[in-house]
Design brief:
alpha/beta, Quinone Oxidoreductase, Chain A, domain 1, 2 domains, six-stranded parallel beta sheet, ADH-like_C, Zinc_ADH-like, Zinc-binding dehydrogenase, NAD(P)-bd_dom_sf
Length: about 325
């Protein structure tokens, strides 16, 4: 098969389109002939060597294609070996593309529980863009964040895959959604997905501005923080509010003053990608709600993966970047 293979860690230029051995079949696993794969920031971290992946290596967590055994159109859940507890993944859990060959290839093999039918109504590129951010967002908002209709939610960032999907999901659920961005065009696009308003998080008084957009200016019921700005996120909450943390693209460490935290009765909740059960919940949610499909910003050919990574790292995209195979 052809695949995007990296022989070393580094910048986008290490991604080379080349021949690679087909994946081996094994009992309980399914081989998928991929037609599209979506990029995630996680892929950039793998490419840079953060996860110490084996070399040579094929990146990629998200994908859509056809099962080679049944010809069924499927999407891939990149959450492997979740385990038996829904509260958190087990010790064997890993993300597809970390230590096993991923989806930047013509073929990929995954456990059978990690393929689900392609949702009706989604194009090929939208289907490829769904699994990682979809199941991550569903778990963050509903399984962990316990978002209810009528609550207010602040989503840090407006343009990334998680942010765009979270905006759509929360609005479809009946929540009052506010986003943050330094780009007014991204805020405008988020409003098209259902956000009620947006604030410029580079402004010195953005927290006060955000709180003013909630009932009585008391603060948000839920903040979705995928960047790592914990101290600011907590300040945006109402008393008893919940902050769900699912990323650290801005900062790897955070400091919180403890007395305001416990007097505010706040909850700080960590989460990551979801389980097969969360994936089932995601698909049912999409069936039962008027949800905007995943936003796809640009597509590239599989052989253009290095250019696609340059685009992803530029931070200029709104939504997902997808490779067509």
């Amino acid at each position: 098969m052809y695949a995007v293979v990296m022989q070393e860690f580094g910048g986008p230029s290490v991604l080379r389109f080349d021949r690679h051995p087909d994946p081996l079949s094994r009992p309980g696993w399914v081989t998928v002939r991929l037609q599209a794969s979506a990029l995630n920031w996680h892929d950039v971290l793998v490419r840079r060597g953060l996860y110490r992946s084996p070399l040579p290596h094929i990146l990629g967590a998200d994908g859509a294609g056809v099962r080679t055994d049944t010809n069924e159109e499927v999407v891939i859940l990149p959450s492997l070996f979740w385990g038996s507890r829904e509260a958190a993944p087990g010790t064997d859990w890993e993300i597809l593309g970390d230590h096993r060959a991923g989806t930047y290839a013509e073929l990929v093999t995954v456990p059978e529980e990690c393929v689900v039918p392609r949702p009706a109504g989604l194009s090929l590129t939208q289907a490829a863009a769904l699994p990682l951010v979809g199941v991550t967002t569903y778990r963050a908002l509903f399984t962990r964040g316990r978002l209810r209709a009528g609550e207010s939610v602040l989503i840090l960032g407006a343009g990334g895959g998680v942010a765009t999907m979270a905006t759509s999901f929360a609005a479809a659920h009946g929540a009052h959604v506010v986003v943050t961005s330094s780009d007014s065009a991204k805020i405008a696009a988020a409003r098209e997905l259902g956000a009620a308003a947006g604030v410029d998080h580079q402004h010195s008084e953005w927290i006060e501005h955000a709180r003013s957009l909630t009932p009585g200016a008391q603060g948000f019921d839920l903040v979705l923080d995928s960047v790592g700005r914990w101290s600011e996120s907590i300040q945006c909450l109402r008393s008893g509010g919940r902050c769900v943390v699912l990323g650290s693209s801005v900062a790897d460490e955070a400091q919180l003053p403890l007395r305001p935290f416990y007097f505010g009765q706040f909850e700080l909740i960590g989460t990551t990608m979801g389980s097969p059960t969360d994936m089932g919940g995601l698909l049912r949610f999409m069936e039962n709600h008027d949800v905007s499909p995943p936003v796809v910003d640009r597509t590239f050919g599989l052989g253009e993966a290095s250019r696609a990574h340059e685009q992803l790292e530029s931070g200029s995209s709104f939504g997902k970047i997808v490779l067509l195979h």
